Amino acid sequence: MMAGAPALAQTATSPTQTSPAVVDDIVVTAQKREQSVQDVPIAVTALSSEALESRQIEGGSELLRAVPNVTFSKANFSMYNFSIRGIGTKAVSASSDPAVAVSFNNTPLIRNRLFEQEYLDVDRVEVLRGPQGTLYGRNATGGVVNMFPKLPVFRSEGFATGELGNYDSRRGQAMLNIPVGETFAMRGAFGFTQRDGFDYNSFNDTHVNDRDLFTTRLSARWEPNARFRANAIWEHFKEDDQRSRTGKQLCTTDPGPTQVGSATITTPYTQDQLSQGCLPGSLYSDAAYGAPNGGSFGPVRFLGAAATIGRDENFNSVNLIPLGFDPYEGIVQSKNLREIATSYDPVFRAKNDVFQVNLEFDLNEKLTLYSQTAYAKDDYYASQDYARYVSNPAFVDSNKVYDDFGELMPSPMTPGGIYTDPQLGPSDRILSADISRSDNRQWYQEFRLQSDNDGRFNFSVGANYLDFKSQDDYFVFNNLFSLIAEYVYNFTFLPNGGTGTQPCDDSLLTECVYVDPNPLGQINEEGHNYFRSKNVIHTRSWAVFGEGYWDLSPTLRLTTGLRYTEDRKDTTPYPSQLLLGANLTGSPATVTGGYVRRGYYALPDIKQKWEAVTGRLVLDWTPDLSFTDDTLIYASLSRGYKGGGTNPPRLDLNPTVVQYQPLASTFEPEYVNAFEIGTKNTLLDGKLRLNGTAFYYDYKDYQVSQIVDRISLNENFDARIWGLEFETIYKPTPNFQIDANFGYLKTRIADGEGSIDVMNRTQGNEDWITLRPWIQVPSNCIAPKNLAEQILNSPFGPEFAVFSLSALCAGSSRAGTFNPALSSSLPFWQFYGFTYDPLTQAPNGGRGFDADLSGNELPNSPNWTANIGAQYTWFLGDWDLTVRGDYYRQAESYFRVYNTEYDRLRGWDNLNLSVKLEDTRRGLTVQAYVKNVFDDAPIVDAFTNSDDTGLTTNVFTLDPRLFAVRLTKSF
After folding, report:
1. For residue 360, what are the β-bridge partners?
2. What is the spatial distance between Cα 337 and Cα 886, in angstroms, rounded to a whole number?
3. From CA 729, how far away is CA 66, in angstroms rounded?
């Protein structure tokens, strides 16, 4: 069903009492030809189906326990980060390529379900470490994970497996192989998993993060004669459940300062404006289980300061949200990482289909032509509460509002303190939910010619073409967005003098913001009352590649490989339109700063092209040593490449209405020069295998992302990486086996590299402070403290400071500016007596000071990883009883490049136990296992959210303790 044993060549065949104590071998195709894993001069870990099963490695996310210097975590949106030797996919973009290529039977899949899908009827999994490309179809700077399914054989066989476990887990797998004559065979397999939720939603009193997965695979094999071989595979995966895309959301609350220079802050709303929502505190402190200062959110401040709807009984002005109100005040989260409190339970749907046809034709006895054709389709949809906690009741009762004469003036905005959002429904609280969605398809064709000469030289040459189309959408819904759109930008006066709303349609000539009237599951995707990031990409790549193998002597071989790649990426940018409107005539809006009132228009395509020549040079030596049975020593020099891409388009703001900080629209490709030396050894008459590797990488333009202006801004950094890896298996008797792997890793960002840390924009410079901008501008800024002090000490008072402080971030034609060059109805430079343009007078256009990254570690790069496993078998007549344990640990690391205490991820460990009773003659196996024995919930990765939502942190953890009993019948 699945598998486990050590790294290097990991099999776990059942021994017999009389079988020799020899470590089992495994044949791999890491060099596109069948070889013992011990004969391949590449750092490769191969796991057979038996090895995967015995270790309880049920999917790609668990491979880190079997491979040194590997880490894995789910990503914040639709993908994941599988990292090898510190190199993973930290870039977030529809146009980014994976640094670690994931292949299905040698076909590289740009989008795949490595994280969600469970292994089914697998032959083996190969994990190659280091740059690849001269043999594998797609360039990869980090390595390759290649899963090989079992293909049809010319004999009848099958199995059926059933499993029951905790969380009401029900799992099953089955396979049937049928030969049809002597030249044709078919094989079918299916598997399913159903399991109750791991996490508890205390607000809805529900259990979420469950599983409902189904996989099926059909394959056929045809060999009409000795020279021609063909096989075809279709694999289908589907998931429809309440899997949580992210874990808990943590925050060390930032209350904001009470003093700015000589100015004492006495009003809560001014203090909120100087708060960034969350502070960069340790994720492991008790304070991290707070909530953001919601009073600092732009929509909350806007509704509290600008949207007056009447007066109360005491003749005080009434706003939809009280001025200075923090909707999350007093909120303290449970310290259980598996407990959340959300208004919406998650929805998760994924579907993936792979079709593959492989042809082999022997041109003669020495030359074989290979063809591989593949088509893949991947669809993904995930929705969940944007926060992992609920707010306090936030809205005033719009039925209890009076006019200037004391007459009751009810309005339909928030009757009874409840606002009804068209997507999220009615609530007296702030509601927010998101949708992450992708739709992808891929064509791939490869031709390869391979020799099998008896002489000293062999070769493999080929060409391939990849065509990949993708549309990724990310939506954020918030009832404050809709409330502002309906009753601020689209307001109208009711007959009683109250505030109403009007539809933004062709009957309205003036500026307005279109509000999508449809519920969450049926949106028309044209609304400006929600955030939408639409990303369309078309990638075309072709390459020619080859390797030559020269036997310089019976013990010395030289391998040379070369690859030429041409990548073309066409990106169609669609700017986001949150709370932007326009006049019916299409003239630019003077209030919201938009160009259109409804829908999302495309900007001109961004066309990118790169050409790269990469390759490798390997010298391997197989000396006859007195103290080993077999030894391979190799040294390699290789160059890897990964294409660049585009950053998602930002908010479509008119710069004559609101000043906007500039950002790069593209990011550069990655290149790596890698040097590696290694040795593979078999000792003690086959009882011991010991492999070791040392490597050094010179990395250029590693791609790393962070959220800026509500988009994933990808930056490039140079780095150096070096490390060691050891893998061993020792089988002193037929009964006992011990295996282990250890990886040491040191990563260092190059001197002179810098980046703005959104959690600490001032970098400790006491002459500058962090400020919240006006509502249309998503990111915080920094401003001179003396200017903020002057504003706060001025006679205009804190009410006026709400607007003038925001103007230190970005000037607005409607909300004020200190820049005389920007026309505005509020020329603050005349009121306060100074001029200021953040785009020219502040560091990085007001975005902040660069943090010095020199010498910092790369994200998700623990200094060491280690795993040790042991198993013992008792031979009990017809039955074999095997007990196995595996212990894994990784050292601490950081989840961002800044390496602050906020970024630190503590080291964590994992213990798994299993027992198996097997009768091979009857084909019966009974197995019981416990995974995550200590029920640990470590934080394995984290993601920092945007400024305008408070810089909260989504964290990711392991599955809880799982135990189950499994029964398998083979025939």
Report:
1. 229, 370
2. 24
3. 12
The dihedral over CA atoms of 52, 58, 60, 66, expressed in degrees to the nearest 10, equals: -40
Per-residue confidence (pLDDT) for residue 544, from 0 to 100: 96
Furthest-apart CA pair in the chain: how many Å? 105
Tell me the two tokens of residue 137: 């179809």
Q: Which of 213, 116, 112, 143 is nearest to 470 (CA)?
A: 112
- Partners of 238 in the β-ladder: 214, 351
855, amino acid identity: G
Q: How confident is the model at residue 114 (pLDDT cuts 50, 70, 90)?
A: confident
Cα–Cα distance for residue pair 771/809, rounded to 1 Å: 7
* Residue keyed to tokens 């962070």: 706
Query: pTM to 2 decimals?
Result: 0.93
Amino acid identity of residue 167, one-letter, is Y
What is the three-class DSSP state of 459? strand
What string of DSSP letters covers 264-306?
Answer: EP--HHHHHHT--SEE---TTSGGGBS---GGGSHHHHHHHHT
Residue with tokens 């010095």: 852
Convert 621-654 to b/e letters by CB count within 10 Å (16 or more is b).
Answer: bbeeeeebebbbbbebebbbbbbbbbbbbbbbbb
Q: What is the separation of C-alpha 132 from the centre of its chain, rounded to a whole number of angstroms? A: 22
Q: Do the beta carbons of residue 352 and residue 378 sit within 8 Å?
A: yes
486 neighbors 579 (Cβ within 8 angstroms): no
Q: Over the stretch 799-820, which tens digit does the pLDDT of each residue have?
A: 888 889 999 998 787 788 999 9
Mean pLDDT of 471-481: 96
Looking only at the bridges linking them, the beta strands covering 688-708 and 670-683 are antiparallel
Please tell me which of 53-62, 134-143, 854-863 the model is most confident about, judged by mean pLDDT: 854-863
Contact 791, 801 (CB under 8 A): yes
Task: Establish how many alpha carbons lie within 13 A of residue 700's alpha carbon, considering only the half-sphere containing its beta carbon.
Answer: 10
CA distances 468 to 94, 96, 105, 487, Å, are 11, 12, 18, 43
Q: Which amino acid is at 617?
A: L
Rounded Cα distance, 120 and 122, in Å: 5
Tell me the H-state helices in 443-487: 479-484
Q: Which of 5, 14, 4 is nearest to 924 (CA)?
A: 14
CA distances from 320 to 76, 299, 778 (A): 33, 11, 22
Sequence-distant contacts of 491-495: CB under 8 A, at least 24 apart? 494/411
C-alpha torsion angle, residues 490, 428, 416, 488 (rounded to 10) = -10
Q: Which run of H or of E encompasses 696?
A: strand 688-708
Sheet of strand 206-208, all strands in order from the earlier edge strand to the far edge: 206-208, 199-201, 339-340
The torsion defined by the Cα of 648, 654, 656 and 658, in degrees rounded to 10, comes to -70
How many Cα atoms are found within 13 Å in the side-chain-facing hemisphere of 321? 33
Q: Please count the helices (runs of H) and the strands (runs of E) in the chain.
A: 8, 56
Q: Return all residues near 587 (Cβ < 8 A) that are at least 6 apart.
A: none
The CA angle 241-247-250, to the nearest 5 degrees, is 150
**Residue 520 three-state SS:** helix
Rg (CA), the chain: 31
Q: pLDDT (tens digit, 9 = 90+) per residue, 363-392?
A: 999 999 999 999 999 999 999 999 989 999
Neighbours of 412 (CB within 10 A): 16
Q: Which two tokens stand for residue 944?
A: 């920092």
Q: pLDDT class for 278, splitting at 50, 70, 90? A: very high
What is the DSSP track for 787-843?
A: HHHHHHTSTTHHHHHHHHHHHTT--BTTTBBS-TTS--SSBHHHHHS----HHHHSG
What pLDDT shows up at residue 3? 39
